[in-house]
Each structure stands twice: as C-alpha cells, then as structure tokens.
Fold Dihydropyrimidinase.
Amino acid sequence: MRTLISGGLVVNAAGSARADVLVEGEKVAALLAPGLEPALDVDERVDATGKYVIPGGIDAHTHMEMPFGGTQSSDDFTSGTIAAAWGGTTTIIDFAVQAKGTSLLATLDRWHAKADGKCAVDYGFHMIVSDVDDSSLKEMGACLDAGVNSFKMFMAYPGVFYATDGEILRAMQRAREIGGTVMMHAENGIAIDELVAQALAEGRTDPVQHGLTRPPELEGEATSRAIALARVTGAPLYVVHLSAAQALDAVTEARDTGQNVFAETCPQYLYLSLEDMARPGFEGAKYVASPPLRPVEHQARLWRGLRTNDLSVVSTDHCPFCFADQKVLGQGDFSKIPNGMPGVEHRIDLLHQGVVRGEIGLERWVEICSTTPARMFGLHPRKGVVAPGADADLVVYDPAARQTISAATHHMNVDYSAFEGFELTGRVEVVLSRGRVVVDRSGFRGSAGHGRFLARELNQYLV
Ligand code: URP
Ligand code: ZN
Ligand code: ZN
Ligand code: ZN
C-alpha cells in the first residue's frame, strides 16, 4: 500500500518545508520535492495543498476506563482512542493503576487486557505506583523490561494514591538505579485534606470549593519538595498537569541549575479558570479536576513557560466523567465529584490557537504536541517526526478551517465539553496511523484493534 500526500507544508519541530510525503506500508518512505508526484504509481492520494502535514499527536497523559471514587472514567480504550484519532492524536500513553496490595506486573497485565485489541491508535502505559514496598520497588525493573519506564506517584489523595516523602525518596532512588522517570502529581494532599474538611464543616459544598481548598501555593510547595527529593536521589522528575505559576517557578529554577526536571501542562489550564468552577447551579462540577483550574492570571505564565521550554509538553490528562450520572455524585459535597475533565480530542486544535494568537510558533506547536513527548517517553524517532523510516502517523491539518467545539459533535464518550462553544481556527482533515487512513472528511475509517502497544525506550532528554 502506497499513499502520497502532496502539496502540503511539512512541519517538523526542526523546521518546515514544502514536500510530498510518500508512505509505503506503515512507514514514511520519502519526502519528495513538490512536483515529482505525477510520475508516481500509488494506491491512494491525499491532496494537502494549502495544509500542514504534521507528525501525529502524542498525548502522554490519558485515563481511559480509570477507576476513581467508586466509578470509572467514561471513555474506554475504543471510544477514547477513536476520539483521539479525530483530533489528530495517533499515540496515547495511558496510566496503569496499581491497586493497593497488588503487584505492578499483575497491574500491567490487567491494563493490557483492557486495551489489547480495543485501540484505534497506538498506545503505551505509564505505571501508577500506589504501594511503595520492597516488592513494588523490585518490580519497577521488570516494568522497564515490559516497555514501561515512567512511574507516577501522588503527593495528593491521602488514603488513596498518596505516597509519603520517604516512599517517594525510595521510589526515586530505584528509578535512578534503573533509568526510569518519576512522574509527580504535586499537590500537598495532607494540607489540602484539612482545608477540604474545614470547608465541608462550614457548609461550603459547591464545586468552586474544590479550587479554593487546593490553593496554588500548595502545588508550588509540593513541586519544590518533589524537586528536592529528585535532586537528593539524582532521579529525573516529570511534573504532570502543572497548573500554577508557583509550581512553574520551582520547575524553572530547577531547570536553570541543570537538574533533570521536566513538566507538562494541559489545555484546560491554558484556557479555563477558577471562574468556570464557580458557574451557577452545579455546572462548575464539569470543571473539577486536580490540580484545579487557577485564577486567570496563571494562564499567561503557562504560555510563557511553553515558549521558554520550562514547560516541555502539553498533554490532556483526559479523564472524562459524565455530568448527568457521574459528576452529580458530588452534589452537596464537592469532595465527592469525580476528578477529571475530557480533552483528548481537542488538544492539537486548542494548541493551534496558540499559533494563531502568536503565543507559540508553528514548529513549537508540533514540538509540544508530538516531538517532545516522543523523545521524553522513548518513542522517537519512530514517532514524533515526519521523516523517512518513521511510522506514518501523519495529520493533514487545515490551518484556515473554522470549527466550534461542542458535545453535540465531539466523539468522546462524555455528555459535555469543557470547551463548549469555543470557536477555533484550524481543523484536522486527514489522519494516518501507521500508514492507514483512520480519519478523513468522510468520517472515521479506522478500526478498534488497529492500535498496537508500544514498548518504550528511555527518556532521551536525560543528561
Ligand atoms: O483530576 C484529575 N487530574 N484526574 C485524573 C487523575 C490524575 O490525578 O491525573
Ligand atoms: Zn494527577
Ligand atoms: Zn492524570
Ligand atoms: Zn455516563
């Protein structure tokens, strides 16, 4: 099977050039000077005139079918990866969640069973370590052999995922030993739980209290502490879903000293704010995630962090819960609102607005959405670049098309959109996953089961 994508501007993190992209089988075979094309004998042609051809997006932070607070996130691996494909994301890295008292390898088996044969695009796993004990620490090495080398830990959620500083230290020592990366949910959960208890005792139960009881200072403090622990142990640290300027300051300072500290933010922190959590009725529950949305002034700091590379990646933290039957679990008690927001379908479009508005350049857009996550999580140069030999995960993107985000038209299995009514410039036109057209203007053309598990190599940014 040979496909030619002709007439487009090929945009890589390293630069842009007009070229025709020849795909053979699952791989990019060649980038050809424009105009050679008529002579070629191909099976399928995609006209990309006036469009960008970019490497498929890599969303390094999703939660499909994730158990949380007695329910589970509403996208399974099929609906979630189909939605990802619609939005130009051709790889997700999801989180296998160790339940307390179970082993890491058994956890990995369970997550393989959930995802195998179900995904429309390629996928990998990180491991959430809930139980830091001798056997889990030992098993981290076996996870590496199984293609999982990034381990998420929580300074939040006491009694659920929370790890003590001592446990974090031990896991970091182990990560350092084996070449793994620790991913940190950095919020001071002990202090937050006190604030939550006080709010509830005073009858403050609305969704906005979720934000008010998780102040940005407590994200900044936890981020600083995680950085100190990483420095002491020599382990690389990847701060997930960074939302607060205070946390960004800590990351910036660590990076300026040369420490292996990296961070991602998410579209919701770039575009939404605490005010959304204060919407009337129970509407604010749609915006409850942790860390919470911040006062609007944090947004400009995050955009600046993306420009300066103190923020290296934008992932979605896609963790959808339906409003009608899941978010409502927290009516009368904000602490029972399932934490998380949908977004896997719109990351690339939302970040493209950063290009339109002059916040980031075109190549930086590709770098943040695809190339850096590929390198950070050991998928490059197979993923994250349009180049001969790379997987033909390709997106034809129309930078001039207009669209309006709505739950009525999105493909995620959730009954609302956090970005409802957002008017965007730019739209995904055609998506290839390993050489196969999975989305075009006629609709979804892929299949559940096309997506393959990706055993990942080590973080390529480590010094
Ligand atoms: O609220 C969130 N972010 N839910 C997903 C789990 C996590 O902490 O990433
Ligand atoms: Zn988290
Ligand atoms: Zn998450
Ligand atoms: Zn539902």
Q: What stands out?
A: Residues 63, 185, 241, 289-290, 317, 319, 339-340 surround N-(aminocarbonyl)-beta-alanine (ligand 1) (CB under 6 Å).
